[in-house]
């Protein structure tokens, strides 16, 4: 064996062993048990049939992905102006640093803590309802906890920093001379934005969207806390199977369905982003 | 001009939106009432005292910290050879290895956690510290790897060759040349990895028990049944820790992530 091959093997040994033993093997176990009948242990598609041929499951899947889609849209709509502000408008280095810390602190805080904050704020007598009442928008408290709206607010809050960082990085890498050229050639600021800046920031927008969507679809803690048991999303069904029902076969099938649907939608988004980005 | 004003307004509102829940938690942790109340009634630190005197919370803090430290240390040991390998060598299966090592970043923690519960159950160490540790190493490693691959550049290779040409052993070269060069990436990667482990709920919740609990999972369990100001105090403590860590990162490696503009203009 050449010394180069020996070196490669030496470097690869520990990472490969660890990831095979504790990452690929467990996922393989989930995959195989999802294809096994819980009672007989025989190979069968019964778990998938239970998930995919049932209206209730489709309702849950639809709710999950609807919430994830809305969360992604709102995150991008809020994140773009915020990223723009941080990259293009803020002049003071100190203030930008403070802002970036404000964006990152939530990322460094557990999603349980962040969802808990919204539990306090979204209650019947919470600050959000107090505020809505004081400006006269509503006269009776709005119910947020236990609705898709509440989950959505929590998820947007939790995922916003990812979108801001991803879009901000893309914006800060744009070559400004392209915009100046566009302006010199007589384009209005709006034209420059829509024909130059927005397309150039599209990769950051796409990667932010993909990350937010995947995280929103697989979120458990936020929906569990803010749904009050009234709204069910796919990750909640999975947790139930593993923690209280102990049906690993059916739970495995749910896991794989979540995984495949998320990856498929991410793949589609990736493809669209690439096709658009190339033009 | 109007567009600029609108962007500024949205941005400031978004910043307030980001700060608000954390501020609310910190404020309500100081209420003198026996129930959670915002705005707080009076001002007291007694709930922090209650948390520090509570054995269950303290055990969980210790478990979380030990877990994050061990996971980060093992993650570093796995990520360094992986990063060197992926940055410097071409070999069959390289793309596959890179994909597998990065996969825990995109795989839902929930799926990974449930898989590990079932798998460690077969091996007979489910719901032990070791089961938690393996999972946390998996999610910490990709962060360290990612931040190492940013700092590992071609010039490093020249320095290493020079060192080898001058007769240094591979180990000496690694310690005296490579390690100092990758240190910034290693530090920021390790800090991000540590935090990822420290705040995780969705992976840990499968392998924790009443006796072996991490702080976020314990908070999660409590919040679902009863809400009292001590929960806000624990939450506030984790927020303070996160602020300290971020300030530390800012101080050590600089957090001005959008600062390319100075070079550009």
Question: If you had to describe this structure to a student in words, what would you say it looks like?
Answer:
- The complex is a heterodimer of chains A (279) and B (265).
- By secondary structure, chain A is an all-alpha fold.
- Chain A is built from twelve helices and no strands.
- Chain A is 80% helix and 0% strand.
- Chain B is globular, with a radius of gyration of 22 Å.
- Chain B has 265 residues and is mainly α.
- Chain B has helices at residues 2-28, 46-53, 55-88, 94-102, 109-123, 129-151, 154-165, 170-198, 215-225, 229-252, 261-264.
- The model of chain B is unreliable at 261-265 (pLDDT under 50).
- Chain B is built from eleven helices and no strands.
- Classes of the chains: A mainly alpha (279), B mainly alpha (265).
- Chains A and B meet through helix 1, helix 3, helix 4, helix 5 and helix 7 of A and helix 1, helix 3, helix 4, helix 5 and helix 6 of B.
Order of helices and strands of chain B: HHHHHHHHHHH
Order of helices and strands of chain A: HHHHHHHHHHHH
SS elements, strand count of chain B: 0
Q: What integer is the average pLDDT of chain A?
A: 88
Shape of chain B: globular
* Major sheet description of chain B: none
Structural class of chain A: mainly alpha
Question: What is the CATH T-level topology of the largest domain in chain B?
Answer: MetI-like fold
Basic shape of chain A: globular
Q: Kindly state the percentage of residues in helix of chain B.
A: over 70%
Name the CATH superfamily assignment of the largest domain in chain B: MetI-like
Q: How much of the residues of chain A is beta strand, in percent?
A: under 5%
Largest interface: A-B, 92 and 89 residues
Output the number of helix runs of chain A.
12
**Termini separation of chain B:** 22 Å
In CATH, the architecture of chain A is Orthogonal Bundle
How are the SSEs ordered, and which strands pair?
The complex is a heterodimer of chains A (279) and B (265).
Chain A (H helix, E strand, L loop, with lengths): L2 H32 L11 H7 L2 H35 L3 H15 L3 H12 L4 H8 L13 H25 L3 H9 L4 H29 L3 H7 L6 H12 L2 H31 L1
Chain B lengths: L1 H27 L17 H8 L1 H34 L5 H9 L6 H15 L5 H23 L2 H12 L4 H29 L16 H11 L3 H24 L8 H4 L1
């Amino acid at each position: 064996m050449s010394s180069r091959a020996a070196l490669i093997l030496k470097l690869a040994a520990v990472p490969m062993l660890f990831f095979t033993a504790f990452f690929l093997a467990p996922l393989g176990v989930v995959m195989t048990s999802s294809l096994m009948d819980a009672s007989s242990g025989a190979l069968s598609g019964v778990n998938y049939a239970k998930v995919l041929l049932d209206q209730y499951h489709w309702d849950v899947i639809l709710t999950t992905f609807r919430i994830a889609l809305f969360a992604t849209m709102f995150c991008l709509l809020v994140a773009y102006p915020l990223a723009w502000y941080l990259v293009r408008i803020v002049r003071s280095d100190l203030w930008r640093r403070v802002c970036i810390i404000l964006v990152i602190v939530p990322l460094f805080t557990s999603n349980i803590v962040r969802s808990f904050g919204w539990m306090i704020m979204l209650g019947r007598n919470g600050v959000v309802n107090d505020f809505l009442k004081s400006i006269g928008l509503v006269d009776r408290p709005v119910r947020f906890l236990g609705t898709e709206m509440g989950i959505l607010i929590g998820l947007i809050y939790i995922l916003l920093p990812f979108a801001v960082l991803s879009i901000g990085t893309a914006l800060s890498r744009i070559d400004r001379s392209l915009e100046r050229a566009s302006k010199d050639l007589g384009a209005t600021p709006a034209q420059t934005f829509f024909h130059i800046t927005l397309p150039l920031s599209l990769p950051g927008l796409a990667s932010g969207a993909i990350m937010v969507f995947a995280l929103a679809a697989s979120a458990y803690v936020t929906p569990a806390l803010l749904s009050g048991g009234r709204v069910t999303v796919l990750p909640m069904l999975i947790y139930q199977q593993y923690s209280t029902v102990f049906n690993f076969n059916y739970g495995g099938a749910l896991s794989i369905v979540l995984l495949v649907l998320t990856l498929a939608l991410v793949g589609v988004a990736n493809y669209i982003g690439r096709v658009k980005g190339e033009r | 001009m109007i567009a600029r004003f609108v962007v500024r307004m949205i941005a400031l509102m978004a910043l307030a939106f980001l700060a608000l829940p954390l501020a609310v938690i910190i404020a309500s942790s100081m209420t003198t009432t026996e129930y959670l109340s915002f705005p707080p009634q009076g001002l007291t630190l007694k709930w922090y005292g209650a948390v520090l005197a509570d054995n269950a919370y303290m055990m969980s803090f210790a478990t979380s910290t030990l877990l994050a430290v061990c996971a980060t240390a093992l993650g570093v040991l796995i990520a360094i050879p992986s990063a060197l390998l992926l940055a410097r060598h071409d070999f069959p299966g390289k793309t596959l290895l890179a994909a597998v090592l990065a996969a825990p970043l995109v795989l839902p923690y929930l799926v990974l956690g449930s898989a590990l519960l079932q798998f460690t159950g077969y091996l007979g160490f489910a719901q032990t510290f070791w089961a938690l540790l393996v999972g946390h190493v998996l999610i910490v490693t990709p962060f360290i790897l990612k931040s190492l691959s940013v700092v590992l550049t071609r010039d490093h290779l020249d320095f290493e060759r020079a060192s080898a040409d001058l007769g240094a052993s591979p180990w000496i070269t690694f310690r005296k040349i490579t390690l100092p060069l990758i240190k910034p990436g290693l530090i920021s990667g390790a800090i991000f990895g540590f935090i990822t482990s420290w705040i995780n709920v969705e992976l840990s919740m499968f392998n924790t028990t009443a006796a072996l609990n991490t702080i976020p999972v314990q908070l999660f369990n409590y919040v679902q049944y009863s809400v009292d100001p001590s929960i806000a105090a624990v939450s506030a403590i984790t927020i303070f820790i996160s602020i300290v860590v971020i300030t530390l990162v800012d101080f050590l490696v600089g957090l001005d992530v959008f600062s390319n503009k100075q070079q550009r203009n």
